[in-house]
Amino acid sequence: MLKLKTVLKRPGHPWVYSNELVSMPQFQGFCPLYDTKDRFVAHGWMNYRALIAFRIGSRDPQDIDHDALVRRSLERAIALRAGMQGSYRLVFGESDRLPGLVIDRYSYENSVVHVVQLHTYASELMLPIVREVLGEPMIVRRDIGVRELEGMAKKETEVFGELPKGPFFVMHDERELMAFESDLVSGQKTGFFLDQAAAIAQFGRLARKLPFEHVRVLDLCTHVGQWSAHLAKFLDRSITCIAVDSSASALEYAALNIERQLAPLRERGHQAELQCIQHDVMRLDELKIPPCDIVIIDPPSFIKSKKNIVTGLKGYEKVNALAVKKLSPQGLFATCSCSRHVSGDEFYALLGRAALPIAWIGQSMQARDHFVLSSFPESRYLKVAFGVRCDS
């Protein structure tokens, strides 16, 4: 019998740590959890190899059938996103009661591709039901570093079925579909950052109000050019996009995606230029770039675990200070952190310590398909701040 040592410190939270259990049986699988008085607490997944030893799937004592529980939770996740258009996150792990399972749904012209990430031992057990319900084509990725915390090795990506050719589609400004291409098989994370949809739309509406006839955009850690491509469509005027990333392969997709939005601008008589630069943003001071009217910095997570918090926070401070130096007076600034180990308060505090000459005018978070649970603060991981440069 798997039992708690004491009352859970965070009631409603889906994680139980190994030091909260009476003992650590050498077990991996689906089982019930009981309290100190042998009363039922939850059904979930035990993994003796992980610090998070038990992940809760249901608090209903009747949910003893693993496959039925997974199927019902998956069907609930699909129903909650009914009516969403384009590409979006279909399953967001613990927020959908499927701990460690992440599924993105990519919408193509005549097909849908599901990209499945298996972060936990629990998610490995869920995969047969996922494949049965969602079918093919499907990409299953086990190349995520967090698997090592579960005592699992990274593995090569599997592709089931034939992947469609051409671009997939995402929503632009919640009004129309927009085409993108990316490496969904081996690109960073799931190959595309669907979580930034709300932030980009909010920032794009601010950018649209800029008084400049020709706007210079510096897109740092551009990945596949998502921010710049959307901004080109929002601004609908002459524009110069400078896309910077450390990955040459990502920049190839960035050039394709941004150029797809610049071409119509040229057809309407606007000037539209693109520069793609492979460079480490931590050495941004080495790049000779004239001041830009818009600067976006969307770096990868600098804090993968709590032991990296101090150095990670310093990294965020440094990269933001470097980015702002490239921003022209009264220019727009957007900065992001996707680390769940940094709270919103900590993020804004580090921006204060960086002493940026910025007046903050807005903030955002992950898109609505990435649900946030009040009982699971870690589910609110993306922090985005918008500001205007205002030197004294």
Structure report:
By secondary structure, this protein is α/β, with parallel strands linked by helices. The chain has 3 domains: 1-64, Roll (Archaeosine Trna-guanine Transglycosylase, Chain: A, domain 4); 66-160, 2-Layer Sandwich (Transcription Regulator spoIIAA); 192-389, Vaccinia Virus protein VP39 (Rossmann fold). 24% of the residues lie in helices and 30% in strands. The strands form 4 sheets. Strands 14-13-12-15-16-18-17 form a 7-stranded mixed sheet, sandwiched between helices. Strands 5-6-7-8-9 form a 5-stranded mixed sheet. Helix 4 (226-235) links the parallel strand 12 and strand 13. Helix 1 (66-80) crosses helix 2, helix 4 packs parallel to helix 5 and helix 6 crosses helix 7 (344-353). It is globular and about 70 Å long. The chain starts with 14 loop residues before the first strand and ends with a strand. The mean pLDDT is 94.
